[in-house]
Predict the structure.
Amino acid sequence: MKPAAIFAVAACALFFVVVSLHDHHQLPDRIASHFDVTGTVNGWMDKTAFTTSMLSVGLGIPAIFVSIIYLMRFLPTRYLNLPSDRWREPAYFRKACDYVLTITLWYAAAFLLWQTAFTHQIVAANLATPPRLDNQYAFLLTIPILVLTLGWLVAFMVRFLRTC
């Protein structure tokens, strides 16, 4: 596990929390929290509930994902299903677990930055009168998370298709 990846996750989580709390103070008491595909509001909620739910989801998803990957190292090696059986050997199993955890930490850091942009976009939509989500920007925002996820999978596969 790389200390830089841990630092990146911590820094991105702190950035997400700071931006979310800053944005919270700009919101009206009742905010548009859900939008249809045209950017029109179709759901409302209290700003405190919105900020709480965004913080919970934004921090919770990466925390759960990283925790599951971390706990993988405590499972019997037969549960590690990789293209090469060699990764299940005791000498390589820890190395495999460390690699998966490291790329997952980087994924979590990037996800936190994406979540910051996503949440900030909803806040920006609520500052407009009437509230309206910029659906072009929202669509463009989905591209990085898809590319990020694909990149995580490719990094995973490239590493484990090779022999130890």
In short: The longest strand covers residues 30-35. The chain has a mean pLDDT of 91. The radius of gyration is 19 Å. The CA atoms of residues 19 and 116 lie 7 Å apart.
